[in-house]
Amino acid sequence: EFCIAGSAEKEDSARMKRQVTDLTVTTIIQEPYTMPKGSELEGYCVDLLKILANKLGFTYNLKLVKDGTYGRQDPDGKWSGMVGEVVRSEADLAVAPLTIIATREKAIEMTKPFMQTGIGIILRKEIVSAEASFFEFLQPFAKETWIGILIAYLVTSFCICMAARLSPCEWSEPQSEDNRFTLLHSLWYSAGALTLQGAGPQPKALSVRVISAIWWLFAVVLLASYFAGLSAMQGSDNTQLSIETFEDLANQDVIEYGTLRVSSTFAFFKYSKNSVYRRIYEHMERKQSFVASMEEGIRRAQEGNYAFIAESVSLDLAVARYCNLMRVPEVIGMRGYGIAAHLGSPLIKNLSVAILQMSESGDLDYLYRKWWETT
């Protein structure tokens, strides 16, 4: 049985080599899958294609798709982009982050996925409120300011204690009575001033009263500044939103959002029967908030009040590269990227087997780490 299976696989490989000599492969510019390097191309998909060519023994000519799109079917049933070039036999293969979906499978054949992904959201960190912290009450002042206040508190308390001990007005009976302004009481008295409550007994000596008056004036100005900053911080939080899911995004109208018009992500929302996803699609159609490329979507997310919806793998790269961006935790619509060929192509089976072998041997993980970590 194993001999028969092995001979059948060899026959398939030999048949493919006889039928295929030099392949025309179409791709699209998108980091880190395919990127220009001088007059040549490099990236994850370029390395993947090289390994597959060595495994299966074919040569190829790599070119960029003419219209710069992945592929969308118009009302007349005609396909654009890389899918259209494969359908019209202008290219034998399409090697790119091409999502495997049912509508494409009807027009072309696709291999087993070489990468798994889903649909996610990225947006600027500043427009999304963070979770409440236990030390949030310290935010009106910087760390250096709080340290300065602590030092001023300790120094003032020490000065009050020393002035009270040196001034005869604070001593009723120096021989038999202790001074009321001990260091502990001075600390307590200064702390009472910070809360505008006060703490008795009150000083009698003029020198101690002057120090106390300066400290009380400082406390009034400090508290006024603190509560003004706290109010401003809480007021600004009212314009921030907590977006953890796609439903949170659909339920607000402050942040604009969109996706690539000619993409599988667009098709996912367009044909979804989920009420939340339908609302997202209808909002994007009504506002015409689509972008023409991944680069434009990432740029709009960086520049303003915009949430960009796309494949999570590509968004993770953008988040790693730009520190002012964050990805929403929820990922939906898990799917895979595959290589496309025309219907009935003898390439698909052998390419799928080779991709599975690369997955089992760790080659796909190596390519991912190589291009995601270095790019």
Task: Describe this structure as you would to a colleague.
- It is built from 14 helices and eleven strands.
- The two termini are 46 Å apart.
- The chain is of the alpha/beta class.
- It is elongated, with a radius of gyration of 34 Å.
- Mean pLDDT is 84; it is low at 1-8.
- The strands form two sheets. Strands 1, 4, 5, 6, 7, 8, 9, 10 and 11 form a nine-stranded mixed beta sheet that branches. A two-stranded antiparallel ribbon has the order 2-3.
- β2 and β3 (40-42) form a beta hairpin.
Give a brief description.
The protein is α/β, with parallel strands linked by helices and 375 residues long. The chain has helices at 2-19, 44-56, 81-87, 102-107, 143-166, 183-194, 206-237, 246-250, 264-271, 275-287, 294-303, 312-321, 347-361, 363-374, and strands at 22-27, 35-37, 40-42, 59-64, 93-99, 108-110, 115-124, 256-259, 306-311, 325-327, 332-342. Strands 1, 4, 5, 6, 7, 8, 9, 10 and 11 form a 9-stranded mixed beta sheet that branches. A two-stranded antiparallel sheet has the order 2-3.
What percent of residues are in strands?
A: 15-25%
| Global outline | elongated
Tally the beta strands. Answer: 11
Order of helix and strand elements from N to C terminus: HEEEHEHEHEEHHHHEHHHEHEEHH
Q: Let me know the average pLDDT.
A: 84
Structural class: alpha/beta
Largest sheet: 9 strands, mixed
Provide the helix percentage: 40-55%
Euclidean distance between termini CA atoms: 46 Å
Uncertain runs are 1-8
CA gyration radius, whole angstroms: 34 Å
The count of helical stretches stands at 14
Question: Based on the structure, what is the oligomeric state of the protein chains?
Answer: single chain
